[in-house]
Amino acid sequence: MAVAWVQERALLLILSVLSVLLVTLYTSASVTWLQKDVHFIAARAPPFALSSHWTTARQLGVGNVTSVRWDLSLWDYCLTTHVGANATSVCSMWKEACREADLQHSTVCGAMGSLQTLAFLSLSLSIIGLYIGYRSVTSEKPLVLPLLCLAIRAVQVGLEAGALLEVTSLVPPSALFPYGLDLDKGPFYCFANVCCSAAVFASALFVFLRTSGPHRHEYILFNTVEEIEN
Question: Which of 64, 139, 154, 189 is the most buried (most CB within 10 A)?
Fold first, then answer.
């Protein structure tokens, strides 16, 4: 029984640390959530459609482009073009790109803004959940703390499920991305953290059941000499 209790507390703490690492990973600017690499004949003009309104696209000069790559992270929008063996890449922050192109109310800009908000909330909940998980492990009677950990992880799973639904809505072809987009590493890290948060939820539930169980009666079989004299 004691070994299982130690294992459950250790598992709760390890999974809480792993959750913080996963959220930090997929919220970083170096991890792309969506990407698309399109190759076409050099003599054919690339079908940028409405993306020609974007400042980043206008800066590249798309006359004889042989391939185009879009990379979308939570913070940056990057467009890379290849003209023969030469490659040119331009990146800009989402807020700047949407403001300069007057696309604040577009579907893409709205979705990326929602993803940024959900990612920030998820990161905050992971850090708070790690602290509460640590207190649940170190406290002798953590009756309320495991319940708080359960609530935090339930909310976090809901937030990240919403983020996954939001990012999948950008995959089909649209006016800005006529070829559609492909999921990259970010959504998979996010899904991994959903599984991790669910595991933390289960661990916190076991910890709560252990701490809220019936108190074990203790019996004194022998008294010491000092206790008898007192």
Answer: 189
